[in-house]
């Protein structure tokens, strides 16, 4: 397998069996270099086994087909993702394979699993390759795996695998000082147990000729001269806040800060059973969403966001809901009329139109990605493109590319839909993508000659990743934002942070070996100690209250619906209510929920909602022929003898939840199974 000279330079320590991080720019062929290391490792070590870990599902298939296929002639290569049936028999598949490519979460699940078919040890592998390894920090899955590794290492375990990390952008970890950046790089090295961070030094010219950097430009636009649509939304918000009769409410409508305050107030209202305040906060948040959409894309997109919200079923017995629905209805016609008035359209879109017209002139074979913050704005931009006469034609063939995670905001893409779009883009059937951050990292997308960051505020890592998508010769990387906006100042800061990161890496690379090793060992000891402390605290918190003394209330109508002692976990993950009387409190929607994937022992049933107020609660699962309601904790208020609280995650509750016992349930609940 042929490597370029600069790739050969960075794989040196890994080929000698040392733990290392390869730092190469996007598009320089990090994965190819890693495949070479894997090949040499397997050829020189009898019984060797490699785990290639990725942090996004779509990268499993991509690595298997695009890079690791060269090993399939001599070695058994298996790709396992969340959608594959292999993961239920992970331990068996690992034993039958020389190379396993999987998401980090699958390996983590297998490391903690008690099932014989699933469980593996880190020592079952001789080499771990960690893709996009800058994610090995804080609560990320990579870090959970590596903390397990470090715990074993510090307690004297000998046959742990070699570790190879790959990254284009270690970042500064939020640090803006040189010392902080150095500390962050050292922490990443410690987390990955890396003896060295390698980058191209001798073959720099060779690297630069193979990986051209795009020309960066700032495409700045002005604020709307007039925004009557936005002004009317703000008037409605003022009206709602007056109705609430609460002094001191925030007034900075249409900002992220306003949204944060509203979310805090909604949580407090839920915990104090103040339904009027909570319902108003939910509606105000939706109006604020509409203002943010109006600022990003078109007025009509903002209007449709509100229209969809008011079209959903709500509890009209509640006077607050009646007031809010009537208020929207009174303003609907005038808002719709303003939304269709071209005089007040968004200047950002005019600037984007200019950029696209310049770059997509036939017969040029342009290819581009427009990065935007939300799925909603990606879909709105595609709709705008299709409605713009000067752009709709044969020469722009566009689609949306977003994440596969479920969101109640906008429809998510399935993994297959995602792969279809990437395939069409790769083949040239599509030549423009409106994408969220999903296309920033790792995705094997052909060279683009135009990349636009459309009104984005992100960190230096995301900036470097997006810039790395513009790989064609003479490509352009455009920052499209309002003049003198936060987005522009953040982009300028990011440029400084990249320089800071590069300086910090050089300093770490130049550290005397003894000093480096001592520092790394100290950081590892601290990381393991704080992890053990945290686990002890969580375990302690779980024992705080007797489950029988804990009550769950519907977050919307505050009806008490069950006790903590009614809850069990299925597969240590899904929280279900096993009390047969619980069925009196909810009703089910018609039609089963459809998932793209299948599960080993269960299938989804219908969505469940409060029988009193129609608040969404979760869904039914059919587990080995038994129907069980899964409860989503954020749809309830939890009352303990100490306080009432709203939780985002079940893992934060202060009472112990037992594992579901199928046999005990079937024997104690006759007639429940069908």
List strands and helices in order, with pairings.
Elements: H1 5-15, E1 20-23, H2 30-44, E2 50-54, H3 57-66, E3 77-80, H4 90-95, E4 99-103, H5 104-112, E5 127-130, H6 141-154, E6 162-167, H7 178-191, E7 196-198, H8 204-210, E8 215-221, H9 228-244, H10 256-271, H11 275-296, H12 299-311, H13 319-339, H14 347-359, E9 368-371, H15 375-387, E10 398-401, H16 415-427, E11 432-435, E12 450-454, H17 460-467, E13 476-482, H18 486-510, H19 513-542, E14 551-554, E15 560-563, E16 567-570, E17 574-577, E18 586-592, E19 602-610, E20 616-623, E21 626-631, E22 636-639, E23 644-645, E24 658-659, H20 662-668
Parallel strand pairs: 1-6, 1-7, 2-4, 2-5, 3-4, 5-6, 8-13, 9-11, 9-12, 10-11, 12-13, 16-24
Antiparallel strand pairs: 14-15, 14-22, 16-17, 18-19, 19-20, 20-21, 22-23
Helix pairs in contact: 1-2, 5-6, 6-19, 7-18, 7-19, 9-11, 9-13, 10-11, 11-12, 11-13, 12-13, 17-18
């Amino acid at each position: 397998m042929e490597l370029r000279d600069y790739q050969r330079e960075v794989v040196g320590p890994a080929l000698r069996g040392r733990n290392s991080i390869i730092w190469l720019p996007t598009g320089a062929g990090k994965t190819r270099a890693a495949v070479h290391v894997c090949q040499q490792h397997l050829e020189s070590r009898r019984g060797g086994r490699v785990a290639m870990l990725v942090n996004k599902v779509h990268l499993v298939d991509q690595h298997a087909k695009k890079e690791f296929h060269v090993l399939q002639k001599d070695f058994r290569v298996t790709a396992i993702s969340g959608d594959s049936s292999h993961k239920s028999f992970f331990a068996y598949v690992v034993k039958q394979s020389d190379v396993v490519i999987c998401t980090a979460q699958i390996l983590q699940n297998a490391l903690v699993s008690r099932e014989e078919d699933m469980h593996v040890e880190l020592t079952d592998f001789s080499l771990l390759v960690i893709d996009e390894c800058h994610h090995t920090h804080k609560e990320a899955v990579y870090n959970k795996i590596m903390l397990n590794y470090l715990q074993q290492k510090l307690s004297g375990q000998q046959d742990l695998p070699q570790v190879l990390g790959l990254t284009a952008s270690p970042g500064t970890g939020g640090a803006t000082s040189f010392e902080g950046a150095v500390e962050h790089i050292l922490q990443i090295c410690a987390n990955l147990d890396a003896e060295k961070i390698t980058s191209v030094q001798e073959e720099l010219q060779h690297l630069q000729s193979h990986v051209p950097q795009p020309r960066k430009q700032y495409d700045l636009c002005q604020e709307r001269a007039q925004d009557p649509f936005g002004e009317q939304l703000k008037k409605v918000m003022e009206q709602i806040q007056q109705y609430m009769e609460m002094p001191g409410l925030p007034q900075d409508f249409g900002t992220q800060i306003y949204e944060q305050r509203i979310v805090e107030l909604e949580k407090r209202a839920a915990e104090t059973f103040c339904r009027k305040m909570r319902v108003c906060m939910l509606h105000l948040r939706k109006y604020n969403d509409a203002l943010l959409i109006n600022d990003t894309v078109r007025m009509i997109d903002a209007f449709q966001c509100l229209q969809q919200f008011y079209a959903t079923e709500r509890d009209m017995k509640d006077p607050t809901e009646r007031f809010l629905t009537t208020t929207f209805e009174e303003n609907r016609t005038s808002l719709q009329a303003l939304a269709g008035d071209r005089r007040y359209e968004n200047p950002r879109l005019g600037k984007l139109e200019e950029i696209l017209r310049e770059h997509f002139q036939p017969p040029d074979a342009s290819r581009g990605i427009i990065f935007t913050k939300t799925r909603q704005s990606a879909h709105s931009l595609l709709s705008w493109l299709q409605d713009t006469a000067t752009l709709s034609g044969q020469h722009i063939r566009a689609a949306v590319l977003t994440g596969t995670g479920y969101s109640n905001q906008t429809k998510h893409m399935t993994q297959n839909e995602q792969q279809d779009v990437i395939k069409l883009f790769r083949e040239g059937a599509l030549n423009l993508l409106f994408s969220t951050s999903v296309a920033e990292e790792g995705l094997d997308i052909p060279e683009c000659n135009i990349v636009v960051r459309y009104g984005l505020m992100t960190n230096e890592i995301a900036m470097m990743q997006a810039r790395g998508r513009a790989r064609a010769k003479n490509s352009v990387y455009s920052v499209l934002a309002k003049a003198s906006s936060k987005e522009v100042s953040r982009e300028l800061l990011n440029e400084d942070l990249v320089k800071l990161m590069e300086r910090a890496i050089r300093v770490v690379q130049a550290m005397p070996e003894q000093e480096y090793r001592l520092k790394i060992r100290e950081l590892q000891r601290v990381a393991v100690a704080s992890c053990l402390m945290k686990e002890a605290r969580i375990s302690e918190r779980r024992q705080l209250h007797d489950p029988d003394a804990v009550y769950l209330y519907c977050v919307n109508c505050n009806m008490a619906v069950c006790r903590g002692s009614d809850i069990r976990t299925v597969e240590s993950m899904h929280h279900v209510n096993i009390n047969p009387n619980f069925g009196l409190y909810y009703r089910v929607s018609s039609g089963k929920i459809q998932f793209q994937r299948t599960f080993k022992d269960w299938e989804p049933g219908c969505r469940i909602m409060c029988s009193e107020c129609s608040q969404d609660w979760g869904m039914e699962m059919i587990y080995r022929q038994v129907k069980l309601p899964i409860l989503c904790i954020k749809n309830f208020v939890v009352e303990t003898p100490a306080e009432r609280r709203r939780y985002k995650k079940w893992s934060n509750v202060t009472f112990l939840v037992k594992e579901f016992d199928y046999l005990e349930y079937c024997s104690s609940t006759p007639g429940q199974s069908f």
